[in-house]
Amino acid sequence: MVEEKKEVLFERVMTVPMRSIFSKPTCQRTPAAIKHIKDFVARHTHTTPKDIWIDRELNMAIWHRSLRKPPKSIKVRIIKWDDQTVEIDLPEE
């Protein structure tokens, strides 16, 4: 079988503000941050949160300070493919 190569529709670097998740209880903040990032990216790329894939390094950056203290904002690189899937990872410096 021949694999079809996916094409990139667009690639952006955005800062996701996450100050609103600090109103949640401390034991729910980092899972809420993951959901907030997916919702933010879904709103800006016109996709659903189930079509969004978070990279391992980004996940580790969010969980770095444990369950109770996620970052207040994080800069992410968003790549939208032609099959409407979206990949989120940390931008290259």
Which descriptors apply to this entry?
93 residues; alpha+beta; Ribosomal Protein L31e, Chain: W; four-stranded mixed beta sheet; 2 helices; elongated
Percentage of residues in DSSP E strands: 25-35%
Number of helices: 2
Which architecture would the CATH scheme give at its second level? Roll
Which CATH first-tier class would you pick?
Answer: Alpha Beta
Quaternary structure type: single chain
Within CATH, the superfamily carries the name Ribosomal protein L31
Parts with pLDDT < 50 across at least 5 consecutive residues: none
Roughly what percent helix?
25-40%
Kindly name the structural category: alpha+beta
> Which word captures the global form?
elongated
CATH topology: Ribosomal Protein L31e, Chain: W
Characterise the protein shown here.
This protein has 2 helices and 4 strands. The longest helix has 17 residues, at 29-45. It is elongated. The mean pLDDT is 92. With 93 residues, the chain is α+β, with helices and mostly antiparallel strands. The chain has a single domain, classed as Roll (Ribosomal Protein L31e, Chain: W), CATH 3.10.440. Helix content is 27%, strand content 28%. A 4-stranded mixed sheet has the order 1-3-4-2.
Outline of this structure?
The chain has 93 residues and is α+β, with helices and mostly antiparallel strands.
Topology record:
Elements: E1 8-17, H1 29-45, E2 52-54, H2 56-63, E3 73-81, E4 86-89
Parallel strand pairs: 2-4
Antiparallel strand pairs: 1-3, 3-4
